[in-house]
């Protein structure tokens, strides 16, 4: 028996679709998209409109690659499509015009039927496994769902993969059957071709959050608590090095994004990513760099290592690296720490101890004494059954004393998540973080504890006043650095932020 779990509307370029999630008795629920039917005569008119729009447009590759120009071009398409549809069908109601305009624009500039799930903010992943089975989606609350969308053919899937690749200078074909790319919106895309993927051509889209996560979001969602957030703020303010780790989809990059607004606005940040995912407050002095794959002739590659070496020549105060994967990258990163740069990065590992093992064994395999430059490790976890993400460990890296035969590091666990209670508990007081900041600043233990308490009050006030926009959060922190008393006045009087 079919049981409706939830329904809501999604707007895809003016096309308003109904989304219905139902339990149909199968092993997974169904994600059903309902769009009003369009008659044969209307479809013929839309084909004519498309032909005329192609003649009107003067699209250059440069315009397709630049997100801002692409958005402007899309708006022109929307305007021209609406004008043409009204010429052919003058008696249509406004809602009907919007529907037809959305259908035209989604097909000409987007991925057709896939545009509705792409516009659904509740989805994290969209997967095409071939034309023989439905498109699958990963929903924030329900996990994997089957949809009622079927792609008509393998050629259609290949066309979509080619279109995505061309826009970012990538190619996929029989000789190059694997492709990593991204959409103009920043969503990550992976594509594979038959017979490498034996059931058919595939496209996997990991959606990029339209609204960047903030530290206040994380506190509200219980991903981490106020105490950990204040400690991270303290570490970043005083330029300690932080590594965020966890499994795939655990929220490593999102966590990285939430802590970067703690950097002072008068410091230069250089970030290095394979695909642009970070989104920092507009007040920050930020230079984002992204890697580039080689062209079909094997030329033009710009690797993460190239960018890391180049970043050191750009006079950065802080260096942010999307992910450490290889030995040479790790060596350059830790060398940057040794030369006085503050560094933040992510790594695939499921515990703080595992982070240490991954860094000092192949394939990364860096000497253990180099880890002394790292101060704090954050471990993120995605609980798939409950659909939640949590900070499950916070640990500091403790240099081993000179009396040992070999120098190295120990991992000191400060906080741990207890799954039964869904609660983060303190295991130990920090030793290295406080002593290092005291050494650099001359602050006493009491002064550091007062600083932490002050930061906790500011964070609690931001949560209470629902300050969860990345630019607003950045503005509050920037004002705190410039005029602390002004922000503390808001906090003490519990005034809403203006």
Topology:
Blueprint: E1 3-12, E2 15-23, E3 30-34, H1 40-56, H2 61-65, H3 67-88, H4 94-109, H5 115-119, E4 123-128, E5 136-139, E6 143-147, H6 154-167, E7 178-182, E8 188-192, E9 202-206, H7 215-220, H8 226-237, E10 242-246, H9 252-259, E11 268-273, E12 285-290, H10 304-311, E13 318-321, H11 327-338, E14 342-348, H12 352-360, E15 376-383, E16 388-399, E17 409-418, E18 423-426, H13 432-441, H14 445-464, H15 470-482, H16 484-493
Parallel strand pairs: 3-6, 10-14, 10-15, 11-12, 11-13, 13-14
Antiparallel strand pairs: 1-2, 2-3, 4-5, 4-9, 5-6, 7-8, 8-9, 15-16, 16-17, 17-18
Describe this protein's structure.
With 498 residues, this protein is of the alpha/beta class. It folds into 2 domains: 3-206, Beta-Lactamase; 215-493, Rossmann fold (3-Layer(aba) Sandwich), CATH 3.40.50.300. It has helices at residues 40-56, 61-65, 67-88, 94-109, 115-119, 154-167, 215-220, 226-237, 252-259, 304-311, 327-338, 352-360, 432-441, 445-464, 470-482, 484-493, and strands spanning 3-12, 15-23, 30-34, 123-128, 136-139, 143-147, 178-182, 188-192, 202-206, 242-246, 268-273, 285-290, 318-321, 342-348, 376-383, 388-399, 409-418, 423-426. The protein has a 9-stranded mixed sheet with strand order 1-2-3-6-5-4-9-8-7. A 9-stranded mixed sheet has the order 12-11-13-14-10-15-16-17-18, sandwiched between helices. Helix 1 crosses helix 3 and helix 15 packs across helix 16.
């Amino acid at each position: 028996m079919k049981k409706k779990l939830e329904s809501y509307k999604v707007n895809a370029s003016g096309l308003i679709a109904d989304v219905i999630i139902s339990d149909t008795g199968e092993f997974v629920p169904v994600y059903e998209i309902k769009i009003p039917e369009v008659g044969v005569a209307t479809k013929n008119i839309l084909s004519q409109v498309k032909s005329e729009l192609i003649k009107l447009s003067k699209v250059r590759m440069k315009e397709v690659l630049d997100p801002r120009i692409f958005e402007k071009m899309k708006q022109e398409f929307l305007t021209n499509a609406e004008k043409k549809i009204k010429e052919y069908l003058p008696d249509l109601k406004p809602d009907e015009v919007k529907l037809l305009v959305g259908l035209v624009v989604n097909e000409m500039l987007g991925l057709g039927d896939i545009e509705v799930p792409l516009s659904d903010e509740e989805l994290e992943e969209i997967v095409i496994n071939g034309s023989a089975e439905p498109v699958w989606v990963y929903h924030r609350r329900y996990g994997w769902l089957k949809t009622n969308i079927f792609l008509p053919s393998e050629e259609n899937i290949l066309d979509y993969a080619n279109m995505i690749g061309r826009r970012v200078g990538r190619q996929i074909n029989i000789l190059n059957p694997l492709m990593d790319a991204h959409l103009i919106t920043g969503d990550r895309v992976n594509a594979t071709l038959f017979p490498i993927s034996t059931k058919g051509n595939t496209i996997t889209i990991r959606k990029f959050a339209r609204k960047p996560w903030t530290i206040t979001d994380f506190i509200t969602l219980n991903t981490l608590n106020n105490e950990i957030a204040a400690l991270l703020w303290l570490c970043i303010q005083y330029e300690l090095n932080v590594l965020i780790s966890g499994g795939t989809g655990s929220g490593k990059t999102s966590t990285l994004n939430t802590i970067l607004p703690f950097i002072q606005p008068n410091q230069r940040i250089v970030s290095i990513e394979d695909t642009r995912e970070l989104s920092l407050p507009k007040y920050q002095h930020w230079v984002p760099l992204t890697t580039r794959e080689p062209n079909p002739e094997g030329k033009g590659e710009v690797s993460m290592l190239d960018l890391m070496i180049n970043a050191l020549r750009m006079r950065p105060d802080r260096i942010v690296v999307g992910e450490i994967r290889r030995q040479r990258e790790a060596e350059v990163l830790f060398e940057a720490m040794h030369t006085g740069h503050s560094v933040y990065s992510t790594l695939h590992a499921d515990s703080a101890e595992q982070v240490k093992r991954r860094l000092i064994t192949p394939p990364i395999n860096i000497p253990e004494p180099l880890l002394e430059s790292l101060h704090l490790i954050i471990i993120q976890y995605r609980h798939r059954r409950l659909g939640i993400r949590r900070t499950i460990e916070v640990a500091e890296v403790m240099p081993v004393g000179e009396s040992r035969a070999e120098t190295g590091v120990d991992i000191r666990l400060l906080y741990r998540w207890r799954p039964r209670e869904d609660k983060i508990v303190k295991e130990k007081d920090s030793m290295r973080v406080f002593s290092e900041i005291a050494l650099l600043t001359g602050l006493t233990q009491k002064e550091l504890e007062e600083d932490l308490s002050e930061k906790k009050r500011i964070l609690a006030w931001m949560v209470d006043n629902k300050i969860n926009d990345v630019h607003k959060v950045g503005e509050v922190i920037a004002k705190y650095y410039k005029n602390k008393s002004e922000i503390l006045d808001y906090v003490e009087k519990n005034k809403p932020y203006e």
